[in-house]
Amino acid sequence: MKALRLFALLALVTSVAHAQDRTWMFGPFEKPRAANPVISPSPVAQLKSPMTDSVVQWEAYATFNPAAIVRNGKVFMLYRAEDATGATMIGGHTSRLGLAESDDGLRFTRRAVPVLQPDRDAQARYEWTGGVEDPRLVEAEDGRYILTYTQWNGDVPRLAIATSTDLISWQKHGPAFARAGNGKFLRSETKSGAILARVIDDRLVATKVNGTYWMYYNVPDIQIATSDDLISWTPLEDANGRALKVLSPRAGYFDSWLVEVGPPAILTDRGIVLLYNAGNLGTHGDSSLPQRVYTGGQALFDAANPIRLLDRTNVPFIKPTEAYEKTGQYVEGTTFVEALVPFKGQWFLYYGMADSRVGVAVSRRAAKR
Q1: Has this prediction a pTM greater than 0.90?
Q2: Which stretches of the chain score pLDDT less than 50?
Q3: Radius of gyration over every alpha carbon of the chain, rounded to an integer in angstroms
Q4: Helix, strand, coil: what percent of the chain each, to 5?
Q5: Strand, helix or coil at 233?
Q6: Confidence at residue 90, expressed as pLDDT on a 0 to 100 scale
Q7: How many CA atoms lie within 13 A of 329 on its CB side?
Q8: Which of 143, 241, 326, 339 qualifies as a FRET site for 63, CA 20 to 30 Å off?
């Protein structure tokens, strides 16, 4: 009851992200101003870097782009945290993943040290000095947690996989496409992996379609891959042997510059709903939006054929409206969506604000989902 009273109070001081224009969409979402941002940079937390043996304030510069999962009646969030070392530019700092938990989905308590970071391990060549970035989370049927994240060594970003049973201790499995095509994708730039999942109570559980797991990934076009074990993935290829594109930018729209995968894709009674991030071009995009601003869109794919696009939104369902979504590392503004979880009868959407903070938007959960 306490959490419900808090939400009722916050609902009085919210901004609406955007009204729905498709019946299959998630939302509409409201941003509770009294709760936002839910995670902000902090100079307090320190650790000794295993890579340099120096003490760093590991979340002092930025905290953003979160993953989330519901476990034991709480929301657990993995968030990207940047220290203040390196060059003062986007991608110039070292990223680690912090863990926070919440009883109501709005107020979070953080752990003092990161749960995933560059280390002197087999993945160091892929993760140092840029670190580990932009997580997404789903649960496997056997209770493991499957994490997709970006390894950034300052040369090539690579989509990678890690697994855990408690969200604290993680086993790194390395680049998701290391074995695919005899290694042909290992030097390709890949990131942002959204594994297809179904909703079971408040859990997002990875689900097979046609006998295989599916994952939407990448930017500036969204591509698709399959797996038998949720660890080793194989991109689907087009007739020319290139990774197959299933969603691309559109001239004249809010997603005219790029499209990038958002939270895990969710299997619903209408099809597969994929929330995605969208960049806007200044000259050939949506003239009502700033150039290079990041907003959010939604796409619907065929439940029996995850490659087949059925519909997509023509306007963003979430966009920067608040000062803290337009000030920080990315001054054009971002509402960079990465986590959508069912929790206590509502949907909680977590997103990055201007590459600097973590925000939340909330929607009542429809019974049909």
Answers
A1: yes
A2: 1-13, 367-369
A3: 19
A4: 5, 45, 50
A5: coil
A6: 73
A7: 26
A8: 143
pLDDT for residue 14 = 52
The residues with which 295 forms a beta bridge, in sequence order, are: 278
CA distance 327 to 32: 18
Paired strand residues for 339: 350
> What does the pLDDT read at residue 11?
44
Of residues 158, 172, 155, the one with CA closest to residue 121: 172
**Following DSSP, what letter does each residue of 257-325 receive, concatenated?**
SEEEE-SPPEE-SS-EEEEEEEE--SSSS-TTS-TT-EEEEEEEEETTEEEEEEEE-SS-SB---SGGG
Q: Name every residue whose Cβ is closer than 8 Å to that of residue 170 and which is 6 or more positions away in sequence.
A: 115, 116, 147, 162, 163, 164
Q: Which of 62, 111, 1, 342 is nearest to 204 (CA)?
A: 342
Q: The tokens of 10 are what?
A: 């916050």
Residues 6+ apart with CB under 8 A from 23: 270
